[in-house]
Amino acid sequence: MMEIDSDSEQSSTKKKIETLQGFILGPLTSSISKLSFSSRGIPSDEDFHFYYNFNEFKKPIKEIVKKTESTLKSIGTSTSGIWGKNLSFPDDLDDAYDWLVNINDELFERFDSCVDEFKKVRKMEEESGKRVSSIMDEDGFQLVGKKKKGENRNLEKDEVEKMGSFSSAVKTVSRDARTTAARPRVPFHIPSITRPQREFKMVVDNSNEPFEHFWLEKSEDGSRVIHPLENYTDLDFIDRHTMDVELVKPLPVESTPFKLVEEVKDLKELAVKLHDVNEFA
């Protein structure tokens, strides 16, 4: 019975590996590259809504949307054969963003699990000095994330006696557990920046009283703080040298050159002349 179960598990694992290889080497990569290349020239925000009123822009956009949805649906349907989970693409586009987040989280979690599994096998090989065979030796792919008790590696007899059975179970952190967990606290103050009260040696008063700056002057009775601009009057902000400037009268109209425009032809000639002038007053 144990041999039959192990053969069935190996056949199912090989089938999943072949599905994953076909999914990666198939038309998915070319479809994604085409979509990313075509999306570079698509306008966004207000420009997109403006151009979407024209059929010349609306028809190719609908084709791109249709191809994108078909690609995402193929990704969702293939997850059941590779990961053992049904992550089909939702019909409601409002849920598409959450679906993409779930796919990315699942992919990164399984990648982290593969890296952790590889590190464990490498550590065992370095400690024992012998090679440990694994599923990765055949195709270069390894499916992790399913926890199975009593699953043993194909080890040699002396390795089994020394190290025992090595379980390939890897605990993956679910997205719900990560989102519901307490997030790390972000400090309000950056430690690399010196606090003002320490830089200027200010005594901090945490009592429930309005702040009074000790650099500013106070009134005679000490009831209020005198603002620095209160020591100036309106005349202090007026330029006093304006009285020494001699006024220059403009030239009379008779001596001022001007161009009288009566027809459209004269207006065009004047526009050409003004276009060639660098500066004018």
From TrEMBL:
Classification via InterPro entries: Exosome-assoc_fac_Rrp6_N, RNaseH_sf, Rrp6-like
An example molecular function term from Gene Ontology annotations: single-stranded RNA binding
Residues annotated as domain Exosome-associated factor Rrp6 N-terminal: 39-120
GO cellular component, one term: nuclear exosome (RNase complex)
Domain of life from the UniProt record: Eukaryota
GO biological process: exonucleolytic trimming to generate mature 3'-end of 5.8S rRNA from tricistronic rRNA transcript (SSU-rRNA, 5.8S rRNA, LSU-rRNA); histone mRNA catabolic process; nuclear polyadenylation-dependent antisense transcript catabolic process; nuclear polyadenylation-dependent CUT catabolic process; nuclear polyadenylation-dependent rRNA catabolic process; nuclear polyadenylation-dependent snoRNA catabolic process; nuclear polyadenylation-dependent snRNA catabolic process; poly(A)-dependent snoRNA 3'-end processing
Name by which UniProt lists this protein: Rrp6-like
Classification lineage: Eukaryota, Viridiplantae, Streptophyta, Embryophyta, Tracheophyta
